Amino acid sequence: MLEITIGIFLVAALGGLVMAKQIFDGRTPAVAIALLHGPLAACGLFLVFYLWMKTQADTMIGTALGVLFLAALGGFLLVSFHLRNKPHPKAAVIAHAAVAVTGVAILVFAALR
């Protein structure tokens, strides 16, 4: 189950990379990609929560859950810019990606132990 969860996050990350490139090229991210990226990441976050509960509050999975929750908050912030037709702050895009990658890396370490 942990491997499937990591796979879901990796697919979501591909969409995130495409949207980040669009933002750094000065364009508005494609809505279709955002509509896949967000729900996929949300499903992954739900699965991490489920795994955390199933493993009786495993510390590493709990840490990943907290970090990925922070990434989700950053994602909501970025969506708010899209909804207000404002340019996405590049620093927020980088921070969102860095936090999300950190959370997924923690999950990978949890899977390897």
List the helices and strands and how they pair.
Blueprint: H1 2-24, H2 31-54, H3 59-83, H4 90-112
Helix pairs in contact: 1-2, 1-4, 2-3, 3-4
Q: Separation of termini?
A: 15 Å
- Can you write the helix and strand succession as a string? HHHH
How would you state the average pLDDT, rounded? 95
Could you describe the largest sheet, including whether it forms a barrel? none
Low-confidence stretches: none
Summarize the amount of helix as a percent range: over 70%
Q: Supply the number of structural domains.
A: 1
Labels describing this entry:
113 residues, mainly alpha, 4 helices, 0% strand
Could you walk me through the main structural features you see in this protein, from its secondary elements to its overall organization?
This protein is an all-alpha fold and 113 residues long. The protein has one domain (2-112). It contains four helices and no strands. It has helices spanning 2-24, 31-54, 59-83, 90-112. Helix 2 packs antiparallel against helix 3 (59-83) and helix 3 packs antiparallel against helix 4 (90-112). The protein is elongated. The mean pLDDT is 95.
